[in-house]
Amino acid sequence: MGIQVYNTLTRQKEPFQPLEDRFVRMYVCGPTVYDKAHLGHAMSVLVYDIIRRYLEYRGYTVRHVMNYTDVDDKIIRRARELGEDPMALAEHYIEEFDRHMRELGLLQPHVKPRVSQEIPWILRMVEGLVEKGYAYVLDNGDVYFHVPKKADYGKLSGRKLEDLQEGFRIEPDPRKKHPADFALWKAAKPGEPWWESPWGPGRPGWHIECSAMNLHHLGEQLDIHGGGQDLIFPHHENEIAQSEAYTGKAPYVKYWLHNGLLIVGDSKMAKSEGNFVTIDDFLREHEADVLRMMVLQSHYRRPLVFSDATVHQARAALERLRSAMRPAFPQAQGLDSPQAHALREHAVRARAAFQEAMDDDFNTAEALAALFTLVRHINQARDAGATDEQLQPAQMTLLELGEVFGLTLVKEGPAHDVAPFIELLLEVRQRLRQEKRWDLSDFIRDQLAQLGIQLEDTPQGTLWRWK
Question: What is the largest CA-CA distance in the chain?
């Protein structure tokens, strides 16, 4: 059937058919850079990194754009609190987030536009919306989009215009023609960044930024627009309204994808809640693939609960996958022909089950289940005496599918020339165990552990691997 994706706009799964054959235009809302990024930000970029990787695995060419909002009320307030220049503050956190993307093993977006560098495109759109009668200018130079002019406003969020008289993060301003009207351009205030415009010095509103960046870097219509579920209204709703009003083309986005939020306790992880864990803090204690595994174990549209238990489960799951990449036992005699054939068939079935799950709206949890089934068969074959040559085809399948998820299943250790010395120590340890000299046997095990070498005693012998 091909890939099926859940479209927030239509509230159903649809066959994935890009506007241009085998070419995908994908835009993902990036961070507003006013403070250190937390795991909620990391979760979102990981979700779309995995989706991009799978699309490329299936033969699509993806042009991936992720923006930085470096002009915003939050940045201005934070800079004022710290006594810093807003643009310098934003630059610092952009560099930090770029570092996080490398540390998390993300594929780099092809373009990472910044609001401050897109002002000409923003002004072009705002001027066009005013000329077309969708926007109006106030005496002080503020420009608002007039929501009632867009008859289908609310089609993404399902909210009706008459329900938006108050609340729902509506910008209060008694001068607006309608309470739901939103700012496209804001007149400059003392101490804020500003640019010249036909309406006087000012800066862009939040929503117009993404529309202008998309128009500039991806064109008038997109295949995928991604972001957190908290952006559906008003941000993405407003994007649709202003983009379709400006270009006259609909849909602005063919497939709207929204990831669930990261939950801590009873609320989403957010700076405003004070319940956040920064990416730096997490990576000081855990490798990046632990966080990636947490994301993979849950469907991207569902909320993901962050706790010590979920971190432990993700770490254990990662180690379980890596266990299948261990070599054969030194004394392995080899499987018989039917057993070897069965292992190859398990690899074929795992690939098919993996693809079937991912084709169903990127169901990573089900796809992981297919990988764990393959892991079980590989480990059983090793225990039954499979040689490295017999294990390799299934292991290479597992390695390939793990790479589609961005996982590192074979960790690099020190140079291989230490292996003979480790094997010698294991032989000495085995003799000590035969002589029931448990204190010295345990001493060797513990000292190797301190060097990053983990032992596993099995009925077939002792295995070792780098932690």
Answer: 93
